[in-house]
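Exercise 7. Predict the joint structure of the components listed below.
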Amino acid sequence: MDISAIIVLGGIGALAAVILYIAAQKFKVYEDPRIDEVESVLPAANCGGCGFPGCRGFADACVKADSLESLNCPVGAAEVMTKVAGILGLEAVAADPLIAVVRCNGTCENRAQVNNYDGATSCAIAAALYGGETNCSYGCLGLGDCVVSCSFDAIFVNPETGIPEVDEDKCTACGACVRACPKLLIELRKKGPKSRRIFVSCMNKDKGGPAKKACAVACIGCGKCEKVCEFEAITIENNLAYIDYTRCRLCRKCVEVCPTNAIHELNFPPRKIKEAVAEAAK
Amino acid sequence: MKTFKLGGIHPSENKFSAKQAIKTAPIPAQAVIMLGQCLGAPSTPLVAKGDEVKVGTLLAKPSGFVSTSVHASVSGKVLKIEDVVDASGYKRAAIVIDVAGDEWEPSIDRSPAIVKEITATKEEIIAKVAEFGIVGLGGATFPTHIKLTPPPGKIAEVLLINAVECEPYLTSDHQLMLEKGEEILVGVRLLMKAIGVSKAIIGIENNKPDAIELLSRIAQQYSEIEICPLKVQYPQGGEKQLIDATIGRQVPSGTLPIEVGAVVQNVGTAFAVYEAVQKNKPLFERIITVTGKSVKKPANLLARIGTPLSELIDFCGGLPDDTGKVIGGGPMMGKALTTLSVPMTKGSSGLLIMPSLEAERGKMNNCIRCAKCVSVCPMGLEPFLLMSLSEQEIADWATAEQQHIMDCVECGSCSYTCPSNRPLLDYIRLGKNKVGGIIRSRK
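Solution:
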């Protein structure tokens, strides 16, 4: 009795093994082993910043591509891309490191609150309801959709200003916050040499008068920066200046002429104040 | 007593302005007429700065299929065309008119006589409704002439008139029925002729017994019009709920009422259609309820489109000191306004001034899975699930679509009933936006 049970079960097992083996051979899908190799050097953040669904999707795209020109892992940047290039025997293409920049400076001081929002804590919901707690309907709502979207804990709302700030060391430029902001305030810009950047910290497309009334540091579209720029980096459209970071040479002339201080400079050494210099000369 | 079968709530009615005779609001010194006054695309302006206009002059023409004409509500000179903050909370284009006198276009019949005889043909009625910019006056402001032309292959069997006024506080439709009953029924017959149906049912909730009695008496002349008293329940004024309540048919998910042979129009729209077809009067004024617990003189006002809402409040005794929120529309589906300079539009059915104590939202707590939101949902949805599917960290639009998020009529019964004060509808509306975008991008 025992023997026959073992024989029957053993037989079924052996038969199943043969069927499974044949099926495995017949329906085998060849997968390039290099995909696994490339994936192993990627950061495994699965943030989607590269434009592919997760790190494996990106690895797959890298292996299939003929050159790495348009492929870049924003999290790993040059270091990881060199490794990927090494595995695939391709040439690494160095991409400029980017960083998220919040283009609104409508702090509690600069922008007067005119109403009180008591709805759900979500920028997307507030933006669908109305223009916001101030008279500027283009500015930051301060409810932190960008903070929730960040997988790297790199953006936080400063409780004093009510405006999000980016932690330069943590930001990987994956672009999640750019997609999360319903007001399209966040932009990925070139990190710049020594992290030095110049940008227009305003998205208000209203005419000068209403813009300035709503916020003390709004871009009023006066065009002074456009005139002073020697590199044609600044364009004005819909009463709003925009600095093209691929052309900007960080000369800081636009920052000086801006009548509303809407243009921001980051990480520059302190400017020598003209009066101080003149006094020292005396 | 008939009512709809699924879900529903009965909030306290608070009809402070009930049976207040319609008063004519003063004409403003400056009228601000929004270009976007219907559900569809904003209209294209036909006038320029400095043009003289009369009451009823065409100011803007439709700019697409779902769009409507906009007429001057005052006489005077066009001051400017600029962006002003409207009820949406964003700046939108509007025509600003400096008022001088009150001169009407001569084509408008201003005599008080009621014209009962219908001489216009089906096509003429629809053309006039389109020409005079009639939109659904219940609040959704969908252009009426489009509703009057059923899509090919669909046959309308019955016209339903929404005289339910299920929103608490609002009384404008009620008062309109009491004062303009004869005209409304002529309007209903005009609508029937335009759609080509031989039966109309007017649904009225039984908290308005005087209106039911009056309209029933007038309707005795017309065998084809039936008055249907309904049990008080919110949101009975929703198209799909009204169809269920009056004729017992359910509109399948994702389709329009015409699928079950019904066309629904608001009672205010019926009156506007009467005025347009029989009196050549464009839609430039409407009845608006100004109400609230602390308002000195709650009233039903006949006000011109483009009147700043602050002037209507002043006319009703001024803004109370304890004001917390001013809501455009009713308390359930209306929207809080950010500024009182917002002008009146075709969709302004009410203006509710809430004391700060009532206006405050309760503190949000965790969902306790009591399923009250599920039991009150008139569309048979699961609001708690749809909310969590729309939350940012765990959003899942594909599942939300499978769970029929697009069927939500945004009545707010779920948020009203939630014991944990969860902003269910806020999140569902966000989800509807996203899923709607995904569905449109597929086409």
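Discussion. The mean pLDDT of chain A is 89.
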